């Protein structure tokens, strides 16, 4: 009688101990406490310094873009430089990345470098900043590296297909005395939504414009193992530039939602798919073993075998619950949806530019209007950046950094 | 019969114990996987030679490439008859390097190192002109001409030297990306141009190719 009791206690202890161990073993390091101030740049910098190292690049991307929109180009440069420097580590052996491929670690535990469209944008903005600083060849290098990030799309048709990157590469090559016609033709061939202006040797003002809300990531599938993108929510669909009694329609040259959704499957999707199958299989086997074990354990003759099957079932359930197939949905959330530009030939001196952002019906969204007082210098390119998210203080100051 | 039952009991206890062990092991392994921290104590600073390929490396232009390329170029320039057999000290001005790769680089580093190597190896047989400092030099000369500062020679004389040669270079690149990885080829070419005749009196090149593949978690 005592032995039967002892056996029951032992059998009962198994799940209790397992639960206790799981609870203890699964303790995740405490989330860092970063106080939100409401200022995206200060908050971003706090996350960069105090947040988890695996998310550092993500916060650098986000904060750098807020800095650009606030015309704090030195800060944007510093943050993009550090983020891009980190991208080089993608080819280094990384224990966190290796773990993320394992069954029991979620993908979001890996160091964030972003999906290709996010890495493209980091290089793209850095290219603009180099150009603002008068380093045309380094700007071109960045546009090339940006295009390179998109070179591994599954479908050949969507490989390296950013119009603005090829266009700007050709324009800089032309400005440096080379032949940019190849790059221009590539850009023209890729361009589906805009007719590109021919290169003008007198052009001295380059205005980069972006608008709309960038793609947002979410996870679908039974266990959230499928990475998906949804279009960002913004009424802005195009823009209009007015300057010196002239008006120019600004159509999007590139659409980041299109880019995010045409990349095709990732190798990691297969890994996550395998994790999901493993989770489902072990869970099903666990359920079957628990039911079978429970039935067997109720009969005196099969009680021992039943306990063994129950134990196996518990183990299978443990493995199922520990398997983490969830896709990484960390997103560079403040990206725009559309990229565009204007290349102008303006006489040196002060000019006023007005950028109106338009909705799908072509109506001006009045609270997004941007007025820019720019100063055009002779003998160099004058590069400016404006977004429908540009903060009000920046619209009255020149957007071009000093060389 | 009683003995037989005891045997089963012992076996049951063993099974229970084994199950406990396995379950605990499994729980520990699975549970702890999520709390691992890479290099919790950090990685101590490691001093590397500039021409050494470190443990942090990509397919881009790195310090060891710059060192190898500038070393080779300096040796090559020293063998140019116009420099080696010059009867008067040749004066060289640096022209900016054209970066035609996909890697943004600090181009000044190449020319600065090349200039320093040439100055030290020729022990003054070659002189470089500080053209990037012209603004400050002109300002100083004007102060001397105005008598605002002292001068050991007649400040009205034109003493700024003209260049006999221009040293310049170009970085060109070629990139391939396939499912097997990324391959980056960079050609570093330099040339010395006679400022009087526009002849290229010396040219040399160095090429470096690197390949790599990202972790599957990023592909």
Compact overview of the structure:
The complex is a heterodimer of chains A (403) and B (219). By secondary structure, chain A is an alpha+beta fold. Chain A has helices at 2-25, 40-50, 56-69, 73-87, 95-101, 116-132, 136-149, 163-175, 181-190, 256-261, 267-297, 303-322, and strands at residues 205-211, 216-220, 226-230, 238-243, 246-250, 254-255, 338-344, 349-358, 370-376, 382-387.
Task: Name a few traits of the molecule.
heterodimer; A: alpha+beta; four-stranded mixed beta sheet; elongated; B: 219 residues; alpha/beta; Rossmann fold; six-stranded mixed beta sheet; 6 strands; 36% helix
Explained architecture:
The complex is a heterodimer of chains A (about 400) and B (about 220). Chain A is α+β, with helices and mostly antiparallel strands and about 400 residues long. Chain A has helices at about 1-25, 40-50, 55-70, 75-85, 95-100, 115-130, 135-150, 165-175, 180-190, 255-260, 265-295, 305-320; strands at about 205-210, 215-220, 225-230, 240-245, 245-250, 255, 340-345, 350-360, 370-375, 380-385. In chain A, strands 6-7-1-10 form a 4-stranded mixed sheet. The N and C termini of chain A lie far apart (about 90 Å). Chain B is an alpha/beta fold and about 220 residues long. Chain B has 5 helices and 6 strands; from the N terminus they run αααββαβαβββ.
Number of β-strand runs of chain A: 10
Largest sheet descriptor of chain A: 4 strands, mixed
The top-level CATH class of the domain at 63-150 and 162-213 in chain B is: Alpha Beta
**Would you list the SSEs of chain A in sequence order as H and E?**
HHHHHHHHHEEEEEEHHHEEEE
Number of domains of chain A: 1
- The average pLDDT of chain A is 88
Largest interface by Cβ-Cβ < 8 Å = A-B, 69 and 54 residues
**How many H/I helical runs of chain A?**
12
CATH topology of the domain at 63-150 and 162-213 in chain B: Rossmann fold
The CATH superfamily of the domain at 63-150 and 162-213 in chain B is known as ABC-type transport auxiliary lipoprotein component
Question: Structural class given helices, strands, pairing of chain A?
Answer: alpha+beta
Number of strands of chain B: 6
**Cα end-to-end separation of chain A:** 90 Å
Shape of chain A: elongated
Q: Biggest sheet of chain A, strands in spatial order?
A: 6-7-1-10
Q: What is the ordering of alpha helices and beta strands of chain B?
A: HHHEEHEHEEE
Distance between the termini of chain B: 65 Å
Q: From the 3D coordinates, which CATH architecture of the domain at 63-150 and 162-213 in chain B would you assign? A: 3-Layer(aba) Sandwich
